[in-house]
Amino acid sequence: MRLKRAQTLISASRLGLLAVVGLLSACSGLSYYTHLAEGQYALLAKRKPIAVLLANPKTDAALRPRLQLALDARAYASEVLKLPRNGSYTQYADLGRPFVLKNVFATPEFSLNAVEHCFPIAGCVAYRGYYDAALAEGEAARLKAAGNDVYIGDVPAYSTLGWFDDPVLNTMLRWSDDELVGTIFHELGHQRLYVKNDTSFNESFATFVEQEGLRQWHAARSLPPGDSLRTQRADQFTALVLAARTRLKALYALDLPPTTMRERKQQEIEQLRADYRQLRDGTWAGYSGYDNWMNAAINNAKLLPFGLYHQWLPAFAALYAQSDRDWPTFYLGAKRLADLKPAARTAALEQLQASAATPAAAS
User: Fold this and answer.
1) Cα-based angle 222, 228, 232 (whole degrees, multiple of 5)
2) Would you say the pTM of this structure is higher than 0.85?
C-alpha cells in the first residue's frame, strides 16, 4: 500500500496486505475464517489470463491498453528491478465492486495505538480485513460499542506475499498509469521481502522500490517525470496529519479527566482542519482534492495509516546508494536489516537515515 496520492492516501489502500493469512489463524474464529476463505476463493475464481484477454477481439477496447501496460510493468519488474518472477499480475479479475476489501481500524479513545490482530505468518497488524462490507460494518460497530475510535478504509489492492498468484484487479484500473505500474512494483516488493510485526519497515521498503522503480521505468520508456506537484501535495498533507498526531500523542500522555480530554482532542482535530484550510487556500491556491477526507469525521483510527509508508524512505534510499544502485545488492542489504532484532534494526535504519545527507539521496 502506498500513502502518497490523494485517493490512495485517504483510503489506506495498501493495508490490505496479507489479510488472507487469517485463513491460517485459529484465533480469528470460525466465521471469520470461513468468510476469508470464501472471499479469497471467489477472487481467485474470477481470474483470467491477461494474454488470453488481449488475444480476444471481444475484449473491451478501453480495458485492453491497461492490461497490456500491466503485463509490460510485470515484465519490467522482474527483468530490471529483479523482483519475483511468478504468475502474479499476469491475470485479471473483475470483482464487480470498487474495492477488494474493507479494512477496519480501531484505537482506544485516548490513544494512537492500534487495536491489533495477530496472524501466524503476517504477525500483528493494525486492522482486520473483510471482503463483505456488511461484516466490516458489524465489526466496526462492535469495536465502537466497546469504546474505541473506529475507521473503515477501502482497499483496492493487496498482496498475499506469493502464497497465491495475485491478479490485476478492476479496482486498480481506475488509477493513472503510474499508479497502476507503481502498485505492481510495490506489491511485488512485499513478495521480495516481508518482516513480521514491522509494518513501517515493510511499507517503507516497498514504497522505495515503487518510487525508484517508477523513476527508472520513466527513464527507460522516455516518459516525462511523474506528477511532482501531486506528490508534493500528498507529502504536505501527510506532514500536516503527522503533526496533528504528534500533538494528540502529547495530549494523551497528560493526566486529564475524560471530559477535558475529549474537549482537548476535538480542539486538536479542529486545528488540523484549520491548518488544512490554510494550506489549501494558500500554498495550494485552492486545490481541494482532500476536502472530502477532511470534512468527514476524524478520529484516532482514521489517522493510523499515516506515516507508515514514509518513515524509513531516506534510509532505504541511502542503502540503495551504498549498494551502487544495484538491485540484488540492495535486496541483500535490506535482508540483513530484516534479520536483525527489532531494536538493532531500528538503530541500523536510523544510522542509514542520518547518512542520507541530501534530498537527492531519497530519489
Assistant:
1) 160
2) no
